[in-house]
């Protein structure tokens, strides 16, 4: 199994978008039984809340459902449960370290780093630009899946 956890601040916009994009990419390859894919927040701010409506709408534009997803916070056990812990921005990197401790197995990475960029996923929270987030998430998840497929399948 390949276990992937996507992480952002609230788990209602960026990381659920990445979770459901990645689930779609993996399913399109017929590999869904080989992957566990989830997402979580570094804060409790939105715990229990569904995916933010504009993020849900952006996924729906692409035929992707995120129904039944409710925000959860990262748990300290998640570090050992997942092989890839993929954060959306640099502040997530700092915050997750406070929850799981140091990245002893070198498994925490910025999503955009898989595309060769050293950048953050566009944060739609203040801009309302969910298309920019979609573009980043789509590119990042495709690059991450390519890397995993080249290494493990
Ligand atoms: P997300 O977006 O981290 O992409 O889920 C946000 C959600 C909530 C807040 C900030 C960003 N908030 O401040 O509550």
Tell me what the structure shows:
This protein is of the alpha/beta class and 153 residues long. It has a single domain (2-152), classed as Response regulator (Rossmann fold, 3-Layer(aba) Sandwich). Helices cover 43% and strands 14% of the residues. It contains 6 helices and 4 strands. The chain has helices at 14-28, 53-61, 78-81, 90-100, 124-127, 130-152; strands spanning 2-8, 35-41, 84-87, 108-110. The chain has a 4-stranded parallel beta sheet with strand order 2-1-3-4. Helix 1 links the parallel strand 1 (2-8) and strand 2 (35-41). It starts with a strand and ends with a helix. It binds 4-nitrophenyl phosphate. 4-nitrophenyl phosphate binds at residues 8-14, 45-46, 125.
Q: pLDDT average, as an integer?
A: 98
Bound molecules: 4-nitrophenyl phosphate
Order of helices and strands: EHEHHEHEHH
Major sheet characteristics: 4 strands, parallel
Give the helix tally.
6
Cα(first) to Cα(last) distance is: 11 Å
What integer value in Å does the Rg equal? Answer: 14 Å
The beta-strand count equals 4
For the biggest β-sheet, the strand order reads 2-1-3-4
How is the topology of this model organized?
Elements: E1 2-8, H1 14-28, E2 35-41, H2 53-61, H3 78-81, E3 84-87, H4 90-100, E4 108-110, H5 124-127, H6 130-152
Parallel strand pairs: 1-2, 1-3, 3-4
Helix pairs in contact: 1-6
Bound molecules: 4-nitrophenyl phosphate.
């Amino acid at each position: 199994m390949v276990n992937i956890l996507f992480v952002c601040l609230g788990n209602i916009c960026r990381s659920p978008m990445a979770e459901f994009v990645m689930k779609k990419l993996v399913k399109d390859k017929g590999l869904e039984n080989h992957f566990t894919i989830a997402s979580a927040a570094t804060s409790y701010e939105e715990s229990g809340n569904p995916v933010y409506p504009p993020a849900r709408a952006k996924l729906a534009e692409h035929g992707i459902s995120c129904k039944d997803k409710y925000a959860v916070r990262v748990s300290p056990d998640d570090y050992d449960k997942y092989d890839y812990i993929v954060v959306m921005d640099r502040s997530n990197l700092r915050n997750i370290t406070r929850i799981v401790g140091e990245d002893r197995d070198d498994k925490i990475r910025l999503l955009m780093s898989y595309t060769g960029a050293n950048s953050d996923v566009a944060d739609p929270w203040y801009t309302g630009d969910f298309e920019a987030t979609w573009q980043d998430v789509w590119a990042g998840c495709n690059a991450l899946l390519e890397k995993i497929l080249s290494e493990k399948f």
